[in-house]
Amino acid sequence: QFVNCLEAEKLVDTILQLLSTHLQSDCKEMRRLVLRGLLTLCKSPFKAKRMHSLTESLMELLKDADGELVGMTLSVLSKVLLEKDIPIAITIALQLAEALLPLFDKDTTQVRLLSIHLFGDVIVCVEKEEKKHLKTCVHQSLLPLFYHLHDE
């Protein structure tokens, strides 16, 4: 049983390493396929925990112009970062909060909603003593959030 667990961990790590290289591909369809695979892998909490190593690469995809790709990326990030057993590091929270702010103004409603929800969840999941570091970013987000609330 223990050997099977080790083999499963190695297999998941190998798959994630392979997907990570294709996540940075110039081919938009390849990135979409990788994100679909990651969404499937995220269904398992064990695999979602192992995917933390992809956080930086996923945050880079948030800059893409393709709304569908960004929406899929937000879904993967939500599942990976909001895994109950793992606190969100303040450095990741700050980077993600800054990356999410421009998405509040995207044309795609799905991207706007996913980014706003992920932003709120990240703020909540950061350790209490670390929240003071997010204060500036939260203040910058209030006006755009107010406008979107007023639009709805």
Shape: globular
What's the name of the CATH homologous superfamily?
A: Leucine-rich Repeat Variant
Query: Total helix count?
Result: 8
**Biggest sheet character:** none
What is the domain tally? 1
CATH C-level category: Mainly Alpha
InterPro entries: ARM-like, ARM-type_fold, HEAT_Maestro, Maestro_heat-like_prot
Protein name: MROH5 protein
Pfam families: HEAT_MROH2B_C
Which keywords apply here?
Leucine-rich Repeat Variant, about 150 residues, mainly alpha
Q: How would you portray this structure in words?
A:
By secondary structure, this protein is mainly alpha-helical. It has one domain: Leucine-rich Repeat Variant. It contains 8 helices and no strands. It has helices spanning 2-23, 28-41, 45-50, 55-61, 67-81, 90-100, 109-125, 135-151. α1 (2-23) packs antiparallel against α2 (28-41), α2 (28-41) runs parallel beside α5 (67-81) and α4 (55-61) packs antiparallel against α5 (67-81).
Write the layout of secondary structure elements.
Blueprint lengths: L1 H22 L4 H14 L3 H6 L4 H7 L5 H15 L8 H11 L8 H17 L9 H17 L1
Helix pairs in contact: 1-2, 2-5, 4-5, 5-7, 6-7
Protein name: MROH5 protein
Organism: Sclerurus mexicanus (tawny-throated leaftosser)
InterPro entries: ARM-like, ARM-type_fold, HEAT_Maestro, Maestro_heat-like_prot
